[in-house]
Amino acid sequence: MKEVVLHYATYGKLNQKRDNAVLVCHALSGSARIADWWPEIVKIFDPKDHFVIGINLLGSCYGSTGPRSIDPDTGSIYGDSFPVVTILDSVRAQKILLDHLGVELLQAVVGGSIGGMQALQWAVEYPEKVSKCAAIAATPLSAMGLALNHLQRLAIFQDSDWNGGRYSQQPEQGLTLARAIATCSYKSADLFQQRHARLSNRNGDSPYTALKGRFDIAGYLDYQGSSFIKRFDAASYVSITKTMDTFDFEKIYGSEKEAFQRIKAEILLVGVSSDWLFPAKDVKALTTKLKEYGVDARYCEIESSHGHDAFLADFHLLIPALAEFFEYKSNLLCSQSMPC
Amino acid sequence: MKEVVLHYATYGKLNQKRDNAVLVCHALSGSARIADWWPEIVKIFDPKDHFVIGINLLGSCYGSTGPRSIDPDTGSIYGDSFPVVTILDSVRAQKILLDHLGVELLQAVVGGSIGGMQALQWAVEYPEKVSKCAAIAATPLSAMGLALNHLQRLAIFQDSDWNGGRYSQQPEQGLTLARAIATCSYKSADLFQQRHARLSNRNGDSPYTALKGRFDIAGYLDYQGSSFIKRFDAASYVSITKTMDTFDFEKIYGSEKEAFQRIKAEILLVGVSSDWLFPAKDVKALTTKLKEYGVDARYCEIESSHGHDAFLADFHLLIPALAEFFEYKSNLLCSQSMPC
Q: Is A89 helix (H, G, I), strand (E, B) or coil?
């Protein structure tokens, strides 16, 4: 085992009772600085009253040890020799950090997507440490989810700049394509249709006559891809998608039953009606299983055309469920959004 | 305009009345030899009684003029200077061929996916020439369909072997990835889950510990991709996916109303319950529009977990609808499958 660095950010202070800590787990391309990418969550857990913690995932490119870090054994970049990090590995590392910060109990652990995987893993692995756990649009990946992650990594590996993750110039084309594939799975077909339909690209392309003439949706995907490469690293993308893949209770605890019977926290699972990557029916089925094994679990579904991305793009729809679950009142709770 | 070659295959003979011709239009990677890739259709339209015709699409790599053909103006391979071929272009070329063969009326034109696009285009463009038209899992592509085609072409263009389509060794990695992306859209998430779930790849990979260790679904997709490159050409793949993209009645006829009011044929549209690329609801909505504009159109939906591929993989489910529509009786019509 080698030493790792965890980059973290905290908002507010731990109170004397040490019972006001909230861990917010980030999704694939997020960072420890949760107020930057999920500002609404810091309104729900106001740092005046809460000690809110964000921790950058192992494997990420935002400060924690990742594949572009130096391997102390070789003095060179890890690249593709960076170990596969499981969700459990990351959560165990987070636990060491929280111990160091003096956190004895998490009042709440919350996250969406791979953030939700971490939240659930916390509830299973450290049952005494978690009071409430909310996981949004998160289950172990289905075969289709595993398929799409595989193809995204393949796009990166096929880029001649990949070089086993030991590049000077990152594999931009591969990462662009990977992000574009992912975007198709993060959004819904209905949203794409509403926004782009069969329109020609807004910059004046001619998709009916030119081989590389694009429809508007293609221009959008290219834009998503090329924006992403400015802020994210390909080797981290490979590493974190692998981390997502590994989330599997049976694998760690022998069976879902053995895993779920450990849980003492109250659990809220939220599904998104149009989520294609983590279908609502799978989130609902996971809730049913949790209940079967005695967990105090509840399910809420939000109606959104934003697909998987709804936990960020339609956050206001989440507020009633989160407010009810965390017994919290807020002026964020507007009349538009209905409790589940 | 340049001369083109159309590769075609016929089964049976044109009768004296010249009223027994059936055109079977192939899907993306099919060929004129329809009995090879859709043998059941030649059982429905028995060559004893029918003159069945298959024509290789312009742009394909199975005999018709495509991007790997020699451009007579330059004496070199077309490559990416091969013109964008619309569905209408292909259908017009097919019409010239059928005139040459002495076919005055198509008793039936039938196809699935891009084959269904051609069938519908026939019914609109040559209303006097088509008696019955059956299009399975086909509508103009939605924004998501356009998105996925774009990403597949991008995968090919990004391969350093692409070389503007003027390669000596085809861009195998890009075409493999393109086919793997397509396979995710041809099948359904439920089918992937039933068949592969979260199993490790059957050849002994370790997806939980090795960066390139694969789950079974990943092994399946890689296999689909690497088999495909042995039988298909990357430049043709680029060309034909563009052809799919161009299928759009408004674009050609000014409006759907103007297009559909031309139709004189009876139309059968078939949707597949689990089709993600051409959702059943879109096929149904197209039927409704056809009816609105006075077309004798009917809709049938088959329940299959095979997704878009069901028109090939679950052909037996189509038989009742086709038999009823084409007023045909067959021992293929088994008790398992119910008329729509």
A: helix
With contacts defined as CB-CB under 8 Å, which chain B residues touch A144? 184, 189, 192-193, 217
Minimum-distance CB partner of A209 among B84, B207, B216: B84
Indicate whether B18 and B125 sit together in one domain: yes
Alpha-carbon distances, residue A310 vs A37, A245, A303, B28, B118 (angstroms): 14, 21, 9, 34, 38
Which residue in this structure is represented by tokens 């974190």?
A240
What rounded mean pLDDT belongs to chain B? 95
- The chain B residue lying nearest A242, using CA atoms, is B211
User: B198, A143: Cβ pair inside 8 Å?
Assistant: yes
CATH of the domain at B186: 1.10.1740.110
Structure tokens at B70: 């020699």
Does A18 share its domain with A130?
yes
State how far the Cα of B35 lies from the Cα of B268, in Å rounded to an integer: 22
Query: Which residue among B241, B275, B290 closes a domain?
Result: B241
What CA–CA distance (Å, rounded) separates A201 from A183?
A: 17
Together in a domain, B13 and B69: yes
B33 in the same domain as B105:
yes
A143/B180 touch (CB, cutoff 8 Å), yes or no: no
Other Cβ atoms within 10 Å of B40 Cβ, number? 15
Burial A254-277 (b: 16+ CB within 10 A, else e): eebeebbebbebbbbbbbbbbbbb
Number of domains forming the structure of chain A: 2
In a domain, A200, yes or no: yes
The reply to whether A74 and A162 lie within a common domain is: no
Count Cβ atoms below 10 Å from residue B66 Cβ, excluding itself. 26
Chain A residues lying within 8 Å of B276, measured CB to CB? 189
Of the three residues A182, A212, A241, the one that is the final residue of a domain is A241
- pLDDT score at B2: 82
Residues B267-300: pLDDT tens digits? 999 999 999 999 999 999 999 999 999 999 999 9
> Out of A62-66, A94-98, B160-164, B321-325, which region has the weakest mean confidence (pLDDT)?
B321-325
| Number of Cα atoms under 13 Å in the Cβ half of residue B191 | 21
Distance separating alpha carbons of residues B315 and B323, to the nearest angstrom? 12
- pTM of structure: 0.95
Considering only the beta carbons, identify the residue of A143, A160, A242 that sits closest to B192. Answer: A143
**What range defines the domain where residue B153 resides?**
145-241
Q: CB atoms < 10 A from the CB of B70, how many?
A: 11
Task: Count how many pairs of residues, chain A against chain B, have C-beta atoms within 8 Å.
Answer: 146
CA distance A93 to A113: 19
ipTM at complex level: 0.95
Q: Which residues contact A120 (CB under 8 A, 6 or more apart)?
A: A133, A135, A138, A267
B337 in Cβ contact with B317 (< 8 Å):
yes
> Considering only A204-213, A318-327, B70-79, B85-94, which range has the smallest mean pLDDT?
A318-327
B251 and B109 in one domain? yes
Element (H, E) at B221: helix B216-231
* Residue pair B31/B68 in contact by the 8 Å Cβ criterion: no
For tokens 């959104």, the residue is A304
- Calculate ∠ Cα A159-A165-A166, nearest 5°: 115
Question: Is A71 an annotated catalytic residue?
Answer: no
Instruction: Specify whether the CB–CB gap between B258 and B120 falls below 8 A.
Output: no
Catalytic sites of B, residue numbers: 113, 275, 308
Residues A139 and A278 sit within 8 Å (Cβ to Cβ): yes
